[in-house]
Design goal:
alpha/beta, eight-stranded mixed beta sheet, seven-stranded mixed beta sheet
Length: 585
């Protein structure tokens, strides 16, 4: 008789239950909070719709017999798995209102991939400002998660009248060519479905991936007809040059360089050519079925399960009022399988929680900020002031550093649930070595090869935003999410105004002057901080990779987790893990 069991069953099959059901009175009192969050969700939905409608109407593409990037993604990605990223990213506020690429993470034929495509409605998929940084973030994500990168290329090349915004520099639109070489070197395949005319920059983008699949009307070339016809040694255009340009253009009107008969029949760059747009996507699906991936059973420690407590209650539990405390474990209980959590050192470093949970049956580490007030803590303050939730103290920083190090040993991916106001300050904090301990946490993170994701639930503030695996943790951070009530700033606007104008107030007051002009400047600064820390602004400028509804967070966590366990570079056999045994003692 054959008998089977999940690994370390006594630790993982049933973990400690967390969270509690909300009482009717709690639900009634929280309805206003839920409405405030829904209002922010509506604002963000309108912004995303604006981006989706950028460029020419989808109907015009359809009338030509083509598919938009959104049609292609709908056809390619497994239903219910698409997790878009960088939807509102537009750091230079360019006139197109977007960066011209659409990207995210999703499953294709049951396997996770990072997917990016040119928006063929926006200048036929041209290189435009902000796009290169967007692409860099995506290639980094594929590298961090060790999953395939899938391109849907439909690129008309550089927006020539703004070439200075895309062409030169270390982080330009040329950098992805080297990134593709880097990914191939690491064994991370890049699949590319090619559509339309892709001259110059579009051609380079088309040739650098691992596998090229093309639509029958696609072409890629070092230069398009306009470039060839425009070559002129005079340095200016006169009538003679204009006539040459006219003739050159006419000669290339019929047949653009780099057609299928060149790159399939002669150079054999294209692996496949398809008569229909859907056929190219079907070809990508075929190759995705070939991609390396472990059966999930290899790493699962339990059967997948939904949270025991409803995710819909997250809008009731997370206060839109940034000053209101809440029970962070109640949030966690609506994200993890069966609402279970195995906590590491709960009585030490009370301002943060650390521990192991299950997501879709896989073991995952969680770190997050506790909220509230902690009398008698931190010990080094000796009662001078109480500890407050969201701030970091000596014990909490030590605990996080320890926990990250152990996660590195056990190869546990980490999800950070960040809601932080900073690190404790003052002479007592400095004597308690918080400066060094904060950097020690960063060092602990960098000493691992772990993939991490960060969720800024409400506040990401000062250096604490960095040390809790904010997007600055480039070697480990796969992506960072915000919520409809996220705020990110170096300090709160009121604090910044006080720091900037306190001495001015003293000076004006001592001189007997009217304080109104200074107060006006302070309030303007507060308003400016508020405007530049709101969710949509955070997404536009790249403070976060996406703003996600609270009820959608678990889907992104599942995508992150599944991608991590799909084809990991390093494996710790579950029965050799140390962390769950340390927790149990």
């Amino acid at each position: 008789m054959t008998r089977k069991q999940t690994p370390l069953r006594q630790y993982f099959e049933t973990m400690p239950a967390i969270g509690k059901e909300l009482r009717d009175g709690e639900i009634r009192r929280s309805q206003e909070n839920a409405e405030l969050i829904k209002q922010q969700e509506a604002i963000l939905a309108e912004e995303i719709l604006r981006v989706k409608n950028a460029g020419i109407p989808a109907e015009k593409v359809h009338s030509r017999g083509g598919m938009t990037i959104y049609d292609r993604l709908d056809y390619l990605v497994d239903a219910g798995t698409w997790c878009p990223l960088h939807s509102l990213y537009n750091p230079t506020d360019n006139e197109e209102g977007c960066t011209g690429v659409v990207n995210g993470i999703g499953k294709i034929e049951g396997k996770w991939a990072v997917i990016i495509g040119f928006d063929n409605k926006v200048m036929a998929g041209a290189w435009i400002a902000g796009q290169s940084e967007n692409i860099l973030m995506v290639t980094e994500m594929a590298k961090r998660l060790n999953v395939p990168l899938v391109w849907l290329t439909n690129c008309s090349g550089v927006k020539l009248m703004e070439q200075e915004t895309v062409y030169a520099g270390r982080r330009s639109s040329g950098a992805p060519f080297y990134r593709h070489a880097d990914l191939n070197h690491l064994g991370i395949p890049i699949l590319n479905g090619i559509y339309g005319t892709n001259p110059a920059g579009g051609g380079y983008q088309g040739i650098s991936p691992t596998i090229l699949l093309a639509h029958k009307d696609a072409n890629i070339a070092v230069g398009g007809a306009g470039i060839v016809g425009g070559m002129n040694p005079k340095g200016y255009i006169d009538e003679e040059a204009a006539q040459a340009l006219i003739e050159g253009t006419k000669n290339f009107q019929g047949k653009a360089p780099g057609r299928v008969e060149t790159h399939f029949d002669q150079t054999a760059y294209f692996r496949e050519v398809h008569d229909t747009e859907q056929g190219v996507l079907d070809g990508i699906k075929d190759y995705m079925r070939m991609m390396p991936a472990y059966d999930p059973t290899m790493f699962r420690v339990a059967l997948p399960a939904e949270p025991r407590l409803p995710t819909e209650e997250l809008n009731l539990l997370l206060p839109a009022n940034q000053k209101r405390p809440y029970d962070a474990i109640q949030i966690l209980a609506r994200l993890t399988d069966n609402s279970e959590f195995m906590e590491y050192r709960p009585d030490y470093g009370r301002e943060v929680f650390t521990g192991i949970a299950k997501i879709d049956g896989f073991p995952v580490a969680f770190i997050g900020n506790q909220q509230g007030v902690f009398p008698g803590y931190p010990a080094y303050a000796e009662g001078a002031y109480p500890g407050v939730g969201g701030k970091h103290y000596r014990e909490g920083l030590i605990k996080q550093g320890e926990f990250v190090t152990l996660c590195g040993r056990d190869n546990l991916p980490i999800v950070w649930l960040q809601d932080t106001t900073g690190i404790d300050v003052g002479d007592l904090a400095e004597e308690a070595e918080l400066l060094a301990l904060g950097q020690s946490l960063v060092y602990s993170i960098e000493q691992t090869e772990l993939s991490m994701m960060c969720v800024v639930l409400r506040k990401g503030t000062a250096a604490a935003h960095y040390i809790m695996c904010g997007p600055q943790a480039n070697n480990n951070n796969a992506f960072t999410l915000g919520t409809p009530i996220t705020e990110i700033y170096v300090m709160h606007g009121e604090t910044a105004a006080a720091a900037s104008y306190a001495r001015r107030l003293v000076k004006e007051d001592d001189a007997g002057n009217d304080l109104t002009p200074t107060l006006d400047k302070m309030n303007q600064m507060i308003q400016d901080y508020q405007d530049k820390s709101r969710p949509a602004y955070c997404a536009k400028t790249g403070f976060v990779d996406e703003i996600v509804a609270l009820t959608e967070l678990r889907n992104y966590i599942k995508a992150f987790t599944g991608a991590n366990y799909q084809n990991p570079r390093s494996i710790t056999p579950v029965h050799q893990m140390l962390l769950p045994r340390i927790i149990k003692g």
